[in-house]
Amino acid sequence: xxxxxxxxxxxxxxxxxxxxxxxKRENVFLHPKKFYKKYFPRLKIKSDxxxxxxxxxxxxxxxxxxxxxxxxxxxxxxxxxxNANGALKLRTSIGxxxxxxxxxxxxxxxxxxxxxxxxxxxxxxxxxxxxxATIKYNSKSTSLQFKYLRIKGLTDIALPAGTDPSxxxxxxxxxxxxxxxxEALFNPRWKKYSYIAPLTxxxxxxKSSTGFLLQTGIYYSRLSSDSTxxxxxxxxxYGNFKNVKVVKSFSIRLAxxxxxxxxxxKRYYLSVVAFPSYDLSFYKYLHDxxxxxxxxxxxxxxxxxxxxxxxxxxxxxxxxxxxxxRRSASLHEIGMNSRYVYLGVEFGYRFNTPRIVKKVYxxxxxxxM
Length: 369
Known about the structure:
By secondary structure, the chain is mostly beta strands. The chain contains 4 helices and 15 strands. The strands form 2 sheets. Strands 2, 3, 4, 5, 6, 7, 8, 10, 11, 12, 13, 14 and 15 form a 13-stranded antiparallel β-sheet that branches. It is elongated and about 65 Å long.
């Protein structure tokens, strides 16, 4: 027996060493509970709900929404300013956008795609494509959002006087715009004013309130074409910019804002919010994708606003909404303006949260969240 123990002991010790090595090699990033325990052993989020006289929360419901929006999207640029001779006024042929979103407790996600393109004049406008996806995180006072937006296929509608639009519009199916946005919003009056109530519907404003807001963000955008952005018909106005194929920019934003939720007849609401800012933008003009070019910088004036009017009950909600953003800048050799306006309707319902959603949320989020 003693001899057997002597032979088995080294094997047992070796097995224990192997197990210890496996634990050390284990990737805790794939195991959220172990990750929090290892890197944030004392992390526990304390519950501090908003004022129940002003805001009602729905922690046990899954809010699912569908919306249809009709957008107006335009990008203008020209030599010196956007009204000069030779200016480009790029428009899309996007008809309607269909989108869906879901929100549970502090997290949400959504996506949207083109429902139809080129409502009335496909022969005049280039066919446009549209894609967007959004991921959101909303705590008591802070909202984080990542958004991806892609638009391809535009038409230059800036024509000389007397030109027949049916033959004169310049189709640019090769022009593509991509944007990656990461925004953080701070709401210091979160106990009485809910910024997210008309956006994610995980909360409901039950008494009118107003709050000051602070928005920060970083934004990457890329406007490109297979050929040059400026076609030969207008190249004479643009100097060196006439050979540019790609414009890349990285912007930083710090914007104060003001939001209000007005509640009337208990379940009806009017919500408005606005953010003016001057973004610091670093940009490059590229003649070729692999070109190494020194960047420049400029300040971009941005005005962003949202408004919605609707009905909001315990389970059912919906109404009209409008979102708008305008950007204006004087860049090297050119002036640029862009606008994004979305007008439409949204309807949603709060479902009892499925067990699988609760389990995934509980297993992946920090303790107490």
